[in-house]
Amino acid sequence: MAVPGQQSTAADVAVAQRADEDLRSMFGQSSAVYAALAGPDHVVAAANTAFFDAIGGQRALTGVPLARLMPELSGQGFLDLLDRVYRTGEPYTGRDERVLLGTGPDEREAFFDFSYEPRRDADGEVTGIRMIGVETTQVKQAQRLMAEHRALLEQIARQAPLAEVLDGMARCIEQLTPEQVLVSVLLADPDGRHLRHGAAPSLPDFYNAAIDGIATGEGVGSCGTAAHRREPVIVTDIATDPFWDDFRSLADRADLAACWSTPILARDGGLLGTFAMYHRTPRVPGEADLALARVFAGTAALAIERHHSEQARQVAEARAKAANEELARAVRAEQQLRAEAEQRAAAEAELNARLREAAAAQAARPHPERCQLGGSAGCTAPAEVKIADSWGDAAWGCLTHVEEAIISVRSVFIASEELGGLRAYVSR
Fold first, then answer.
1. Alpha helices of 246-286 — where are they, by DSSP H?
2. What's the average model confidence in pLDDT over 211-226?
3. Which pTM value belongs to this model?
4. Residue-range domains of the chain with CATH
């Protein structure tokens, strides 16, 4: 004869089992993460595909304590939360909780909204925990990227140095994208025929040096081809792609296996450079990857165009400054020439006065012993040469003062000793 209490308990257990089966069925193909944990050791009794995909498909095991299946959880607080829910029977809900999944090179940062719900038996005792969650990593990463994007736009607006903007952009993408990526920005020469290093904080120096100055053209790697075509070039496997024939050994040394390059174009369609995303393993981009490349290629275009505009402004200002300085020099030179002309005119007037005085003095003494051209200071040198001007005035002077008069006074010439100035010369 069946015991009523036992029948009730068996029925309750059956109901609980059916509930778990229903949950597994509901979440089996869902993107939501679901796992049923049993006992105080939180043994993974059941889980859906999304759970195993989140923690790594190679760990798709059941019947194993969660701490053994995911040793990286130790010290992150999640096992302590499970212990508390199991002990108290009180559920727990987390929002945008950060967790590091995997170890070593497979480690990745993830975010989840989740809840821990106690599983109970017919007597109400907690027998395990149901975990239901939704990964919010992509949303979180998108929020971070957009925040960084706004910060980059602010840098561009306040005219931060181009190298600083591009380097910050590259580091931002490398740090925030879920998959490991190495970012490179190359800048086009003014003629658009070559690409120069712009930013690549995580690529080896030897690699950056080797591709600095590569030509743009069909088949010149991902970036040279993208620049030539003015359209994205996706190389998913460098080891087999013909575009990389000339650079394959270089890429192999740098441990690069894939390269997606997007041209950076100005508003008028002119080539500004290329934006490249490198990967350590062969990889095909998703739509989110392509959208990310388009967004940041556009941001790089804005930064580069602003830089070019600033350079053009500085060149124009330098030219204007040089022109102003040249004009100032010309004005100073003209002022100096005018002052020198005035000085020469004054000297000429003074010498003319000396000539007239000398001519008057010669009426009493035709050939003086001393130079008559020394002015108020006088000159004690012998009078050796006679000069005359077109007005008929004549004077005797030393060689030094005669030379000064011939240079400074118009129409002054050396007269013969026999003549008494131009008037005597004309009357002859």
1. 248-253
2. 94
3. 0.55
4. 4-135 (3.30.450.20), 141-312 (3.30.450.40), 347-427 (no CATH)
